[in-house]
Amino acid sequence: MDRRQIAEEVLAAVGGRENVTANDICMTRLRILTEDPSLVDTEQLSAARGVLGFVKRGENGIEVVFGPGKVEAVHEALVQLTGVEADEEIFDGVSGAGPSPLHVHITANPLRDAARAQNEAEDLDDLTPTEKEASVEDLVSMLDTMETEDAAGISPVEEGNSEEDEEEPVETSARVLVINGPNINMLGIREPDIYGHDSYQAMLRICHDAAQEAGFAGCTCFQSNHEGDLIDAIQDAYGTYAGIIINPGAYTHTSIAILDAAKAVGLPMIEVHISNVEEREEFRQVSYIRAACFETIMGLGVEGYRKAIFDMAEHLGL
Ligand SMILES: O=C1C[C@@](O)(C(=O)O)C[C@@H](O)[C@@H]1O
Predict the structure, then answer these.
(1) 31: helix, coil or strand?
(2) Which of 44, 109, 231, 232 could form a disulfide with 261 if both were Cys (CB 3.0 to 4.6 A apart)?
(3) Which atom of ligand 1 is nearest to 276's Cα?
(4) pLDDT tens figures, 5-53
């Protein structure tokens, strides 16, 4: 991703460099004040590469959402292109509307398509509680058959590091991806003395519930017995998910390629193992993925996924 090209695309969408009167960044957002807000083309903005969504602030302000770790580079390029230095007080005194709902641009990929399907189906507000239950169940089984359960999504979450963020919390669209490697789909059947009696379905339910309780907008569970599929899932998560919970199964101990994919996308990751691998065979003592994870949870059975999701939410400031 060429940061300068992205900054140029963003600038073109907000009415050109002359239309930018001030700018700043926070964790995942590029903040821009425009001279003439009517020149902002939100469709064009949504289509700009790397842009996950935008939030309008007051009359003239707009926050453009990028994945974590991307916004600084784009901001740097934007400052160079506009010659307008960052101003931390950019939105001080911006009156009027609080943040508008987050508009999200989603480009095609299988996980996102699953997300979109669920997002549409997840519009449960006008259903009765029983209908809601039923819809969630239907959805879970539908997405399970695709080896993907649950919502996928969109943007990372930002930390409320400014005063007005604390006053006007933006509803998050942060979604978490749970990736499981080979044989995890055999939970409940597979060596129950080591992995317990809880089924894979039970684990999916834990993830789904935990994600909802922890404040995520959704959760996708993906399982594959194939290394390349796991790598694809990690790559597809880029720009879509706020964080990844991963149990690579036996690939934990062998796969440099999965580690490389994790490092490539740079998303916050937690490594989970159902069993306590530290107390097992010598060959399980190596974990390649650990180098890309900020936390490892092991030996808690399927409950480890719940902890991971809550820890991820805390890490993201949800
Ligand atoms: O498949 C698995 C499951 C595992 O990752 C766990 O969750 O405990 C531990 C791995 O060593 C093993 O190969």
Answers:
(1) strand
(2) 231
(3) 8
(4) 889 999 999 999 999 999 998 877 889 999 999 999 988 887 777 777 7
| Fold topology of 110-316 | Rossmann fold (3.40.50)
| Ligand 1 proximity of 250 Cβ (cutoff 6 Å) | yes
User: Do 3-104 and 110-316 share a fold?
Assistant: no
The rounded Å distance from CA 273 to ligand 1 centre is 6
Helix (H) or strand (E) holding 62: strand 61-65
The model's pTM? 0.55
Check if the beta carbon of residue 121 is closer than 8 Å to that of residue 135: yes
CA of 261 from ligand 1 middle (Å) equals 19
Ligand 1 centre distance from Cα of residue 195 (Å): 8
| 190 within ligand 1 shell (Cβ under 6 A) | no
Q: Which CATH superfamily is domain 3-104 in?
A: Glucose permease domain IIB (3.30.1360.60)
Q: How distant is the alpha carbon of residue 134 from its chain centre?
A: 26
> Which CA distances in Å does 48 have to 115, 126, 203, 301?
20, 33, 37, 42
Domain spans, the chain: 3-104, 110-316
- Lay out the sheet containing 295-298: strands in order across: 148-149, 218-223, 175-180, 243-247, 269-273, 295-298
Whole-number Å distance between alpha carbons of 271 and 246? 5
Q: What is the DSSP letter of 270?
A: E
User: Does the model's ipTM exceed the 0.90 cut?
Assistant: yes
The answer to whether 195 is a known catalytic residue is: yes
Mutate to test the pocket of ligand 1, among 246, 252, 286 (most ligand atoms within 8 A of CB): 252
Q: How far apart are CA 255 and CA 249, in angstroms?
A: 10
